[in-house]
Amino acid sequence: MKKVLFLSMLLAVSALQAQDSGPRSFTLKEAVDYAIENNNAVKNARIDEQKSKARNWEILTMGLPQVTGNVDYTYYFKTPIVPAFNRFFSDTTGASARVLSYQAKQDTNIRNILYQSALDSKNQQISFVLPNTLSAGLQLSQLIFDARYLIGVKATKDLMKTSRLSREMSEQEIRYSVAKAYYQAEAAQESMSLLGENLKVIEKLWSDTKAVFAQGLIEEMDVDRLELAKANLESQINIQNQMAEVGLANLKFQMGMPLGEVIVLKERLNELKDQAGLPVENKFDPSARIEYDLLQTAIKLNGYDVKQKQSGYAPYMTGFLNYAWTAQTETFGDIFKRDSQSYPDGSTKKVSPWYSQGLFGVSLKVPIFDSGMKHAQIKQAKLEQQKTKNDLDNFKNASLLQYSAAQSTFNAALSDEVNSKRTLDLSKKIYGKNQIKFTEGVGSSFELSQAQQEFTTNQLKYIQSIMNLLNAKADLDKSLGIK
């Protein structure tokens, strides 16, 4: 029973793998949706948006309580001496010296002790520092007032808006890139398919003509002309096949899909043309473009930058609370020992080398003179803001030029598509009549070959005109800021 269950699971997995390895079909919308999820440029734009959120939180935390801990160890291989105290004890004119001198005259033992002490301390130096010092502490600090921080908090909203608009612009660019790549790939595939159908017709005509020639009813030139037409079609099919492969590879690249994947395009050019629709009367407005919003937001951020640098002249205040523990010993090992100390009353007590201290306070700093550094920074920030304003003015003119060119190109593409359709219908009609005439023996192979070439050329031109129309419509939508 277990073996049967195991084999069933293996078969199910194999079936799923077989399904996964098959070609994937995409409509234009599905291709765009896939690209927005998988294209690396859009992924990076989303990462930048997340970074912007983290940056905003970083700015906000500057005004929140900060706790730091420290552990410091120092070793004095030569301890500092205190000359003032040395001089105090060796001073022969001070009050202590006069008292000791008086006692020495009264008591011989005191005189001997002082004499021996003077000999012992001849080269002695006094130090109040022990060689080994270990300290640990905690400090809590809090920003109380800083105008720069307040302006930075105000700017966080526009920082987030900038990253969001950048992500939307990346998605918009991918939409247009994928659409154009889809049009190109579909046009190449339709051209290849169309040439293949024409090749079948020519091959049948060529085969039938050879049979008629074998009976001696027509000239060999008629067969040769049809064979030449067949060879030309085969050459065109090879070229279109390469173009189709390149088109699909470009589409997969724009979608962020591995180039080894096999995909199938669901929608034909005529279907895409019907979906695109003809533009109604368009009203150009540069503020509808994402770039316009980005530049406007950049100007606001430049303004915040100017204010933040100007606020550098204002005082700022911080508060702090500190608690620390310190130990000083002769040897490092004694830092962690508790010694016993005896007292005159006969009692003993465990004594630790550690001593604690605590403090709190506030710090107010007032900028007074910086040799003109802040003035230079403010000037740079104002010039940067003026540059962004110039970029906005330039964008307004450039976007209007882009719209005018896109509108003109679209109108030309629309007219070309209408003319190409009419030319295709006429060439199809002529080709059909020449086929009938040639089959009935009243038309020449030259006329049929010429009609076939014109018909094939016009078919390819019509496919190209639809692709050009779709591309022009995409460019027009982009110039209008249509998402």
General description of the model:
By secondary structure, this protein is α+β, with helices and mostly antiparallel strands. The chain is 67% helix and 13% strand. The protein is built from 12 helices and 8 strands. The chain has a 4-stranded antiparallel beta sheet, with no helix packed on it. α3 packs antiparallel against α7 (147-214), α5 packs across α6 (108-120) and α11 (373-439) packs antiparallel against α12 (445-480). Residues 1-19 have low confidence and may be disordered.
Explain the layout of strands and helices.
Elements: H1 2-21, E1 24-26, H2 28-38, H3 40-61, E2 66-75, H4 83-90, H5 95-106, H6 108-120, E3 132-145, H7 147-214, H8 220-255, E4 263-265, H9 269-276, H10 290-310, E5 316-329, E6 339-342, E7 348-351, E8 354-365, H11 373-439, H12 445-480
Parallel strand pairs: 1-4
Antiparallel strand pairs: 2-3, 3-5, 5-8, 6-7
Helix pairs in contact: 2-7, 3-7, 5-6, 7-8, 7-10, 7-12, 8-12, 9-12, 10-11, 11-12
Task: Record keyword descriptors for this entry.
483 residues; alpha+beta; four-stranded antiparallel sheet; two-stranded parallel ribbon; 8 strands; elongated; disordered N terminus
Radius of gyration: 45 Å
Number of helices: 12
- What structural class results from the helix and strand content? alpha+beta
Number of strands: 8
Percent of residues in helical segments? Answer: 55-70%
- Order of strands, main sheet, comes to 2-3-5-8
Low-confidence stretches: 1-19
Task: Name the helix and strand elements from N-terminus to C-terminus, one letter apiece.
Answer: HEHHEHHHEHHEHHEEEEHH
Largest sheet: 4 strands, antiparallel
Tell me what portion of residues adopts beta-strand conformation. 5-15%
Give the CA-based shape: elongated
Alpha carbon gap, first and last residue: 58 Å
The overall average pLDDT, rounded, is 85
